[in-house]
Specification:
The structure is a homodimer of 324-residue chains. Chain A is of the alpha/beta class and 324 residues long. Helix content of chain A is 47%, strand content 14%. Chain A has a five-stranded parallel beta sheet with strand order 1-9-6-7-8, with helices on both faces.
């Protein structure tokens, strides 16, 4: 189980590899939010999302012999690129299993990072069986996207950096809003803050209709989403919180917040205009909560993650249209 | 005259105020350019451009009594916001003189940073006379946008950071491509590199048809642009290199490079897709040179500035359209 010692060890392994992202701010965002807003821009991380941290943490934690045989992951998105880059940096094989109808750009980007992309037919093939067969045949290690202790530890390094920067700002108490899918980033940050910044409280933020974590936290039991597609915020849609991440979130996190797609798009437009950052819809939900759900937040300051910036031009143009 | 001692002193005055921007990179950009590309994203600086450094440097260098009377600047763009924020931070008056037909958003943004905006009618009023009258009546100090030693010193802090990061990367020789208007940033960086990284060479990059600095460097004498408007890259259009900046550039810089508007827009699209950064057209010319003018550059690596990100949504949407 992930603990602060594992997070600190992950930080040491990531040193010199993961980007140390800053906390950014703008008086214009403060004005909209009615409090100070500090933004942790993980869209500037390698591969454009925080997922590189978890991928690099997990790959670097393997014993060298196991690692040399290679790794495998199921993902058509940010986790795929994070694991692929980490494997490439270690010079070990990486297989990414994606549905054959995944966007061409995502397939190409993952291949460009040196990974072998194995496509399957969603209608007729069982991706888990395909993954198991490949793993068995080649001795590949599966890197799960969130319910994996070393992945959570890697994402937790975001929390260590937030704690350090908050201390430098003299910020002792604040909500830390985290874009939440399976809860790897949220639980990792929560563990880091528990150890390093007791006055900071992690809170998951999700899109409306995909608020499995908020409902799970409220009820005390893991709840599922009723649907799994049809959201612009696809990067952070998962069936339910993880078996490892949920107990951590349940113990440490404040209540979840949900935002609409329109709010996420407007937050993207504000990040463009005021921070000069590209956020993906799922990566903008925490900023949307800070800007448009201020009555659900406590304190004079709030910290938000922008978890990723991997958005296609058409969606980004839609968001910018809201400024005109 | 600005020298390395003044730049180091400016760095000390900016410490804890200006953002320490990183050097970013992407394997996808390296692929296009055919060499390693390192990007200095000053679009992430306060007010969205490097101009805050020069503004803060100049305002902080004034003796307290003079500063308390306030400052004045002519600008409808990035320099206005940089000076306004610096003055606001010192709690001193700031007057920005803008044409009455400047975009509403720029006027509003400058006012939101606490400045008093004095509008003049381009057709019937003399802005210099207006500025002189205001300065005389209120004892305001004029902060010029580039031909001012303490402004050049502030911009030079970008060069100190590039030198430090290049050293950490083991990068001993490279062209450093700088988006160039009046030459404040280019000359400041050139002075810093002369002292701190002798193998790095600053080179100005300008839009086609506004290549006054390239022509001035080639001829050895200050040359003017034949027109001053009609470029998407308006943030870096000036009549000619400065009387202070040109001798520095002439002594230290490599040949200028010019890029087309279309190349600048395509560079913006790549910065969006690969770096998750918002660049303005003028702020993207150096990246455009790295990506599309590789035959004019020497070495296995190149460093480029993104000088600013203050672009309207419509122009950004146009740039993104080039990706589709």
């Amino acid at each position: 189980m992930t603990d602060i010692t594992m997070i600190r060890a992950a930080q040491a392994r990531l040193d010199g590899h993961a980007r140390r992202t800053p906390l950014l701010s703008s008086p214009f965002l403060d004005e909209i939010a009615g409090r100070h807003v500090y933004v942790k821009p993980e869209c500037l991380q390698h591969t454009g999302s925080f997922k590189y941290r978890g991928g690099r943490s997990a790959v670097s934690a393997l014993d060298p012999e196991t690692r040399a045989r290679g790794v495998i992951a199921f993902s058509s998105g940010n986790h795929a690129q994070g694991v692929a880059l980490a494997a490439q940096q270690f010079g070990v094989p990486c297989v990414i299993i994606m549905p054959a109808d995944a966007p061409r750009l995502k397939i190409d980007n993952t291949r460009a990072l040196g990974a072998e992309v194995a496509l399957y037919d969603r209608a007729h093939e069982d991706r888990d069986a395909l993954g198991a067969a490949l793993s068995a045949a080649r001795g590949l290690t599966l890197i799960k996207p969130f319910d994996e202790p070393q992945v959570i530890a890697g994402q937790g390094t975001v929390g260590l950096e937030i704690a350090e920067d908050a201390r430098a700002l003299g910020l002792e108490t604040a909500d830390v809003l985290v874009c939440c899918g399976g809860g790897g980033l949220t639980s990792g940050i929560a563990l880091a803050l528990e150890a390093e910044a007791k006055g900071l409280r992690a809170r998951p933020v999700e899109p409306e209709d995909f608020d499995d974590t908020a409902r799970s936290l409220a009820s005390g039991e893991i709840q599922r989403n009723t649907r799994l597609s049809g959201s612009l915020c696809d990067a952070i849609i998962t069936p339910q919180p993880g078996d490892l991440t949920f107990p951590i979130m349940s113990r440490l996190c404040g209540p979840g917040i949900t935002v609409s797609e329109d709010e996420a798009l407007r937050a993207m437009a504000h990040a463009f205009q005021r921070l000069k950052l590209v956020a993906e819809p799922g990566g903008a939900v925490a900023l949307a909560a800070a800007l448009f759900h201020g009555d659900e937040i406590e304190g004079d300051a709030v910290i938000v993650t922008i978890s990723g910036g991997n958005v296609d031009a058409a969606t980004f143009r839609t968001a910018l249209g809201l400024l005109e």
